[in-house]
Amino acid sequence: MDAVSKIHEFERFGSILGLERMTSLMKELGDPQDGLKYIHVAGTNGKGSVCKYIYEVLEAQGYKVGLYTSPYLTVFNERIEFDHSYISDEDLAKYTDMVLDKVKILTDRGEDSPTEFEVITAVAFLYFKEKNADFVVLEVGLGGIGDSTNIIKDPLCSVITSISFDHTDRLGNTLAEIAYNKAGIIKDNCPVVTSSRAEEALQVFRKKAEDTGSEYFETKDTEVRIIEETLEGTKFDATPGNTYYGLEISMKGEHQVENAVCALKAIEVLQDHHDIEIGPDAIYAGLKKAIQIGRFEIMRREPLVIIDGAHNPDGARTLKETCHKLINGKRILMLTGMLKDKDREGILKQFLAVTSDFVVTEPDNPRKLSSDELKAEIEGLGGKAMAFADPDTALEEALKVLKDYDCLVCAGSLYLIGHLRARLI
Description:
Layout: H1 3-8, H2 20-28, E1 38-42, H3 47-60, E2 65-68, E3 80-82, E4 85-86, H4 89-108, H5 116-130, E5 135-139, E6 157-160, H6 168-171, H7 175-182, E7 192-194, H8 199-212, E8 216-218, E9 223-230, E10 233-239, E11 244-249, H9 254-274, H10 280-289, E12 297-300, E13 304-307, H11 313-326, E14 332-336, H12 344-351, E15 357-360, H13 371-380, E16 384-387, H14 391-401, E17 407-411, H15 414-424
Parallel strand pairs: 1-5, 1-6, 2-5, 6-7, 7-8, 13-17, 14-15, 14-17, 15-16
Antiparallel strand pairs: 2-3, 3-4, 9-10, 10-11, 12-13
């Protein structure tokens, strides 16, 4: 059995928040997470992109950096990256076996088994420790307080991106409750940067920073001047602290400017609070190089095919705004599929502001919504849809009718766009 199959065997334990199992497992492994230098990133939307920006800037400066993100889109190894390479199959097998040997010790003495995400996180910590990473950019999996990444003690900087409604069954039904959970990554005397704009969430972050004696920075009022926006990226000036002229990013959309500004502020924290050398050349080069696959990613030019990870109302709104700005006036066909437990009406209302024409399918996930149900929901909101349960068939049919459109946009579920991306490469 390969490493990924071994890890997936832990899916049966579900997703359970809390650090008890992780603490026991890491102790058995010798606490490899201790001693590494972290930038810890939480949030509802944008955290993956912020991680990428920070990672690429540190790499451009010449540091050896680890990057831990989730979920993956095309290959499992995407989740653990070091020095611009995904973890190899051989290393994944090696470190997975090391972790599973310790898991057996725990379960043999009657302790609860770790979850799948906890096993993966332990593999990442062990890998980065043995690689002797200078820094680790660590993305939270779910929430903050009880997420397995929150076992780390004193990050160089805690970063919290935008907050919106997602995973409300776990994190709370108000923005304040969700923000409280995310704020769990704020540690004593560790600087905090947030790009959140919701005042209800910001009040929670300010209080947690005050209670922990942590210096606190908001980026929502950063002065930004957009110079140019195209399908190639955005050029802009920004003053998150220092002033930067003519910054360029390759990720599309105004929200990516906000993410880049958040990353810039975190970088300034590393410079000013920890005396870490990061020069302007690295900042400019790293921001431009950063690409987050599956985020308004252009897969084909003729005809234009775009995939995007929008899977909650806030992400869908961002996708709508980016489409209106960058492909306004084009005849758009959307290929979508969703999970049952998402705010589908909230997502679809944003999608229907992009186009009224849909091909619908089903993500490869037990929580998937049937294509027929999604078709009915779209038509109930005034749209038109063709339904195909199999995503390969749906893509094939969408590409067939694309002759009548200018662009195909695929969104609605990370599971779906990961599958489609592999077919479109």
